[in-house]
Amino acid sequence: MQPLTPLLLLALAGAGLSIAHAQDNAVNIYSARHYPTDEALYSEFTKATGIKVNRVDSDDAGILARLRAEGTASPADVILLVDASRLWRAEVDGLFLPIKSKVLDNAIPATLRAKPADNAGTAWFGLSTRARVVVFDKNKFKISDVDSYEKLADPKLKGQLCIRSGSHPYNLSLFGSMTEHLGAQKTETWLKGLVDNMARSPKGGDTDQIKGVAAGECGVAITNSYYLARLMRSSNPADRDVAEKVGVVFSNQSSWGTHMNIAGGAVAKNAKNVNNAIKFLEYLASPAAQNHFANGNNEWPAAKGVSFDNPALKAMGGGNFKSDLIPVSVVGMNQIKVQQMLDRVGFK
Ligand code: FE
Fold first, then answer.
1. CA of 223 to the centre of ligand 1 (A)
2. Could you list the residue range(s) of the whole structural domain that residue 339 is in?
3. Please, which residues have CB within 8 angstroms of residue 206's CB and are 6 or more apart in sequence?
4. Ligand 1 centre from 216 Cα, in Å?
5. CA of 311 to the centre of ligand 1 (A)
6. Domain containing 294 — which CATH number?
7. Both 334 and 253 in a single domain?
8. Domains of the chain: total
9. Average pLDDT, 10 consecutive residues per value, the chain (348 residues)
């Protein structure tokens, strides 16, 4: 066997993504969508277009760090992120290539995409939405005890709250919106109240918080809606049992509405397969793909007028709730402020 050449070693180091050249009819995707049901989406796209999908999976922060490090040499064509303020941050940092697409403009409401700067194209498009809801122990609490985010800091919930790390993007975005609604000072007091009410130090993902409520370890928790829907629709009876034990509340219906986050996509600044990248994003906004987000991952479609049939989403009210319409960019801008507050109040 021949010794490995430096070039071959370099190629091996890049394994995980076979870098496609423009003539290869492929599209290279960096994806933070950690949902196994998305596999079918990618293969459907290849079947329909003949364009091969190469994918690198990481979390939002990992993808953005990688893009920055790779610079103009980056093989990434499409970026999929699962948090609105990360999309906004990447746009501000110039990591996206603004594009013009009638298909995307027609499909995705203006509130769910980047604001184009004078005729420059749109930097990113929301592709699905998720609500940050409250789940609670129906034996311990009534809906009216926990029907706003503010109430989760009430001293009567002392020792009851389960929540994942404050620095996780899902929470940073929620807290960024609270900062906008309540002001920084009241938000910091509220965050301190959440810390005082914790049943345990933050650990695990959203599903672990729901399970904590079902197991009686906590009385109330915060989760993205699709994690609860996933348990409701699980083929495992133990999961369905967990979902059955908890109540769910869409917060703040009598004030500004439930905090929503989006998952979205963009073309990478240094994309080599720009046309394929646009085709892929347009495909994700198509009724079939949007339906997949609803039925496969229990998210609400971002595209207008897409009908879907998901029993769990129906059981959660079918989307008939008031959602917070605060602009994504505002939530993003509050992130540094929020992280400083978390440090001061000891929210891990
Ligand atoms: Fe998630």
1. 9
2. 129-258+325-345
3. 164, 170, 222, 223, 224, 227
4. 23
5. 20
6. 3.40.190.10
7. yes
8. 2
9. 37 44 82 87 95 94 96 97 90 95 95 84 95 97 98 98 96 96 98 98 98 98 97 97 97 96 96 98 96 91 90 85 84 90 98
